[in-house]
Amino acid sequence: MYRDILKEYNVNLIDIEREIDEIVGCGDTKKKIESTYYDSIQNFEVGSVLKGRILSVLGDNVIIDCGYKSEGMVPKFEFDAPSEIKINEEIEVLLEAVEDDSGLIKLSKRKADRIRGWERVISKYKEGDIITGRVTRKIKGGLLVDMGVPIFLPASQIDVKPPGDISQYIGQEVTCRILKIDEARQNIVVSRRKLIEEDRDKKKQGLLAEIEVGQIRKGVVKNIADFGAFIDLGGLDGLLHITDMSWGRISHPSEMLAIDDEIEVKILGIDKEKEKVALGLKQKSENPWLHIEEKYPVGSRVKGQVVNIMAYGAFVKLETGIEGLVHISEMSWTRRINHPSEVVAIGDMVEVVVLKIDREKEEISLSMKQTEVNPWTVIEEKYPAGTRIKGRVRNLTNYGAFIEIEEGVDGLLHISDMSWAKKVGHPSEIVKKGDKIEAVVLSVDREKKRVALGLKQLSDDPWTKEIPDKFKAGDIIPGKVTKLTNFGAFLELGNGVEGLLHVSEFSDEKVTNPADVVNIGDELEVRIIRIEPEARKIGLSLKKLSDSEEKGDKSSSNADPQQQPCGEATDASEKE
Question: Hey, which of 19, 227, 251, 505 has its CA 20 to 30 A from 90?
Answer without folding.
Answer: 19
